[in-house]
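Person: Please comment on this record:
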Amino acid sequence: MLRLEDLTLFVRVAALNSFSDAAREADIQPAQVSTAIKRLEQTVNIRLFARSTRSLRLTQEGEVFLPYATQVLQMLETGIEQIQPQADEIRGVLQIAVPSDIGRNMLLEEFQRFQHEHPALRLRILFSDGIADVFKDPVDLAFRYGHNDDASYISLPVSPKNRRVLVAAPSYLERCGEPQTLSELMQHNALTYTLRGRVYDKWSFIKEGEIHEVTVNGTLYSDDAEVIRRLAVSGEGITYRSWLDVCDDVLAGRLKILLPEYEGNSLPLNLICPHRKQLSITVRLLHQLIKQRCDELQAKFVEQFTYSSSQV
């Protein structure tokens, strides 16, 4: 008979590519994972992993079996969620890691609303521009920018169409002029972001399918994205930020979109969980709330970008 715990361990070993990592995640011994996989292979009468002392990979049969195993577990978890008592759904402590800028601005407001709607829930919010390790750090979920190409964790799209935009305050443009071409950006004060000592001073744009890159210079840079946003609003220079980070400033007129004929880099926002068992009803409802807000802001982006482009 096929055991559910064996199927669960098979899916996690395939995602993590490691018996020991799957054992650590499940808080059991590696030998127990090995036994579970052997038992599953005996049940289906097929070798699912090709393993040696130095390597581990799915066999061809294992690759075929994996999506079916994953679907079975997902359907079962959905069924369990549907029968949980309503009073026990939204309670306990939820630990969230968020980027500093979008966290302090748009997300914090939504977190407050969510907690007010569910007063039995406690939120622990960690603000950082570093990338949270959802396997090692004390967090249940993280909001993270970028394209997801890591199958070891669960990723739910929040704002898949989010992009960077080039912006500056009206006061800066009045004082220093508005750039009309990408090459003119090199003559302006660029407010750049740093991470682990690296300065992100190469800004890429797309126009008519062609990628354009410009290296910028500036007198102010910071490892805190919120600081960069505030400097831009105060008229210190031009910056290249996520639309979600600066949308309120653009809509309020504190910042203006520049060179709208050039499309900024794609920068999707995702909700990350270490594994599927943490996709509780609480997490799913929070994801739904944040995604709805981001959808509204994306619609505003389309309106604003269309308007800005028409002024060129």
Notes: The chain has three domains: 4-80, 89-161+268-299, 164-265. The mean pLDDT is 86. The first strand starts at residue 49 and ends at 51.
